[in-house]
Known about the structure:
The structure holds 2 protein chains of 2 kinds.
Chain A: H1 2-23, E1 48-54, E2 65-76, E3 82-89, E4 94-97, E5 100-108, E6 111-112, E7 119-125, E8 131-139, E9 156-162
Antiparallel strand pairs in A: 1-2, 2-8, 3-7, 3-9, 4-5, 5-6, 5-8
Chain B: H1 2-38, E1 54-56, E2 60-62, E3 68-70, E4 83-89, E5 91-94, E6 100-107, E7 115-124, E8 131-136, E9 144-150, E10 158-170, E11 180-189
Parallel strand pairs in B: 5-11
Antiparallel strand pairs in B: 1-2, 3-9, 6-9, 7-8, 7-10, 10-11
Amino acid sequence: MKKLLSFMLIVFFTLNASIVSRAEGETITQDSRENSGNITVGYNAGVTYTVTIPASVTFSDTEKEVERSLQVSDVVLNSGSKLNVNLASLNDFRMMYDAGYIDYHLTVNHNELPREDNNTILTVSAGEGSGWAVLNFFTDLQKDHVLYAGSYTDTLTFTVAIE
Amino acid sequence: MKERGRKEDKDSQSKLPVFLLLLICMMLGIVTGIILTQGHRPDRSKGDPSVSSGRAGGGVELVIDPNAKDSLSHSYGDIQEQGVVIAGRDSMALHADTREVTVDFVNPEENAQLYYLTFELRLYDRNGKDYEILYTSDLVEPGKHIERITLSRELEKGVYDAVIHVQPYRMDEGKTLTNNVDMRIRLVVG
């Protein structure tokens, strides 16, 4: 009886020991010849960033210039690379409503932005960590140009690419 | 002799419950150990059925993505008034020949009470102009993220030019569209 109990206890502790080893995700081996070893401590930092874009720009009869900003923060890039933000307009910088439209234009850090699509408006180089740009939107809205009542809109796409 | 034999039988009978108790303890220990090593997988299929749906844009049905889970807290720096905060990356790694892939499409907590986000994975052709949509999410609430998605098709091994198109929507009744972001990435399929 004692022998049986002893055998069962040995089996029990052996099984538990193997389960604990698996839980650590490693197979534990022991070599009495090795008394020292090396471990590598590492941190893999992936390329990441956070971009904050203006959600919308709204003009009115009394507000024909609107200031917004574009911010890129927490930028982690590979050494030597840079992050570019380009700007494109869905309607070629025109706010549309039915058959009517209202033109607008903008400056980036007080420099006029060409009307062509996909101009680079912000660049952040590796190591800089963050960057921002001031965007000023203008419209030459003339009351007599507005043919239809309604909400005139355009959609801007900010394209972020890393070179 | 007979008395001694009877005594031994009695002793072994009295040890039987102890032995059975030990045996049960051992079995419980083993089962508990196995359960602990295997861990628990969270149920990703649970959504929030209480949130109603709406329409926006070109009549597309917009619903809360049931795959979006609570996101870990991140620091995204100073938030500008009314701006939409979007977390970006430059690449995504996928396994070849499977449509089920792991991603991390997150709507930062900083957009709380302001913007839903939707995520669209677009695979561009060699010209960089035309694209194929591999995946489109439903609305992801602020503070939630999507971990597992199903692509429209499997991809062969290789490196592809792709874009994660992030479209924010205001968290109002109309769920109106705002400006959006295209994040150019390398899709590494291995």
